[in-house]
Give the backbone structure.
Amino acid sequence: MRTPIPAAGTVPWRRRRGQLEVGLVHRPKYDDWSWAKGKLDPGEEWAVAAVRETLEETALPVGLGRPLPTAEYTVLDGSGRPATKEVRYWAAEATAPAGKLTNEIDEVVWLDVVSASDRLDYARDREQLRALVRADKAGTLTTWPLVVVRHAHAVGRSAWDDDDRLRPLDQAGRERADALVPLLAAYGISRLVSSPSVRCTDTVRPYAAHRSLPVRTKDGLSEEGYAADAARAARHLERLLERGVPAVLCSHGPVLPDVLGRLRHLVDRCEPGAGVTTEQLWMAQKDKMSKGEALVAHLVGTGAQARVVAVERHHP
């Protein structure tokens, strides 16, 4: 079986005079109206490609919100043979004004959802629109991301004679830390909280440097701090939930199951797909996140009202 052609895109949305509008693009080559999307570059992550393609096609910088339904359909590959194309989508809001169109798109229009449904040329594109409208009606379209990261691969304990808290990333770990930069940028992360252990701080430091952000270290997220008082990690999570800003929490394998367990309790049971979200969190909690993995929890509300409405797992 041939591997599907991977592609990613977004459904940009905004509210004008209280009315929900979405952004469609026109491709003169095909004379069609659809969502901004495009194929992944080699080695590129889906979420990163979604933001890049949206910028290239619409000149609109966006931050990713909750994921939307994936589309699969048949296209002709470079040799003219039928192939399956898999397109993953996200809801997205603009983070800056649009620039000038320079790519294969000659027009971008903002339409209300009824007009957009009528304008779209492909029935498959209406599935993302319907999901976005359902989320809006449920009050779960405006979300904020909390990214739980397990530190990237480090030098082995047996090969390190110094204080374990000083144990650094190895080459693979440093590469993963660099790869996290565009991934975290895709979600607009603005706050970084980490265990003070070097292998954790160095996992998020490249992104911190990219955005000129401080890395806020918390002893309660370290293995040693967790062993002394397991409740401290949960308190650091609670503080992030109270702030409600796009954030990263970076910690260790033994610490993260408690963090993920707390997030499981915040799953909105009325949300479509809540069972899948709960299972994803349970699997990440049960089997432990892989080193360098980033789990994105999309939340609505803050503090005691915070609820998880979707989860994504980004493996190295």
About this structure: The first strand starts at residue 5 and ends at 16. Residues 142 and 269 are 17 Å apart (CA to CA). The mean pLDDT is 95. The radius of gyration is 20 Å.
